[in-house]
Structure formats: C-alpha cells, structure tokens
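Posting for a labmate who doesn't have an account.
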Amino acid sequence: MKIFGSNRWLRRVILLSLVFVLSACASKHLEGPSDDSKLSAEKLDAQKRASIRMQLAIGYYQQGQYKVALDEVKHAISISPELVDAYSVRALIFMDMGELQAAEDNFQYALKLAPDDLVVENNYGWFLCLNKREKQGLVYLNKVLQNQSYAALSKAYNAAGVCSLKMKDNAAAEKYFTQGFKVDPSNGDLNKNLARTLYQRGDYLNARFYMTRVIQQDLLTAEVLWLAIKIERKIGNDAALNSLSAQLRKRYPDSTEYSLLQRGSFDE
C-alpha cells in the first residue's frame, strides 16, 4: 500500500508541523529560575536570544538551508546548553539530511534532558517509524496519545496510523486515523489516509466521504486525484470519474498516475 505522507516532501511538511509546536514551550527548557522564582534580567536576555536563534533555525530549515539552520541551533545551545528544543530541532534537521546516527544522538540527548517531553517523544517516535523501527516508534507515539491535551494530537494519531500501515496492521491504522479525525476533521493527511485505508478494504462509499473532504480543501496532488478516480470507478459514478480524470490530465499530464489512467491500470 502506498501511504500518503511517505514521500520526502510530505515528510518535511509533517516534521515542520511538529517543529512549530516547539516555540510554545521553549522557555520551560531553559535553566531554572532563581530562588525567588523569577528569572533574572540576565536569564531573560538569554531566553530571548536563544528563542531568536531557534526561530531563525526553524526558518532556515523550512527553506532547506540545513547548514545555516544547524549553525543557528549551535548558537542557541551556546546560549542555553540545556535547551531541549534545540536538540530536538537539530535531530529533525539531521534526519532530513539523512544523517540518522546524528539524529538519533540528538533525540536521545533531548530525552535525557526531558524524559517526558511530549514534543520530543512525538518527533522521536516518528523518526523511529520512518526508519524501520515501527514497534519502538509506536511506544513513544502511544505515550504521547495518552495526553489528550497535546497540541499536535491529530498529527500524532496520523503518525501512529502510518506507523501501523508500515507494519501491515491496517485495522490499527484505521483506528488511529479515525481517532485523529475526531480530534481534527480538517487534517488533510488524516482524511487522505482514511480514504486510502477504507478503499483498500472495499468500503468505497466511506472512502469517498473522506476523499470528498480532501478535494474540497483543494489538496489535489496526482496521488489524490488518482485515488479519487479509483474510488469513483468502484462506485460506478462515471460523471465524477470523467471530471477527475480531466483534472488529472490537465494538472499532471506527465505523472505516473496519468500514465496509469491512460493504460487503464487501476489496480497497480
């Protein structure tokens, strides 16, 4: 089964959506407050400077400027050596660079500093899932999912679902995707993955329900259009099939999906 979100570009989008959660909790990982429970002016200044560096790092990472992003993270760590978010973001950058051992080392150090940090656990769980350590990854993701107040809960459900698909546990995947949809019905990845999972088990009408939501959000990649075409073909809706086919031809004439459509290879 081809999983939505498994290609490199979409992986970066998912990872970045997790990175932005970090900015809300950066201050809690700085050095502890003084005896009177108030940060000194010096510590406040350090917090501000480290936060600026981290925002710059995230911006450069989003642009694919990994080396510059790593330099900014390095500066943040020099200002605040125990800034957990810095190690977590650095792990994500190394992950996207394909430097898996460096990513692993940074995740492990972040977890050493903050063993129960949900953001780090979420990111690390996803890292493990993407690198053929799905069972370990689900341990971390399920721990995150126990906290229903987690800011990126729907993304954690989606990650756990994708992880389950990689383990060929479609029933568990569908359960995760469905729970995530209840948390955030607007999450495009959850809708796409639910549509694909339901299509695979022959529930075409419900697959169409979720795929319609994706189409309404105008998330029309070649992958999405091809799945929508196959769903409508199974249902027997020729008008919708022809309309979607026309869109695939117009938007992605050089795509693999359009080649499959031309050959009538709906089951490949």
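Reply:
Got it, the structure tokens are right above this. The two ends are 10 Å apart (CA to CA).
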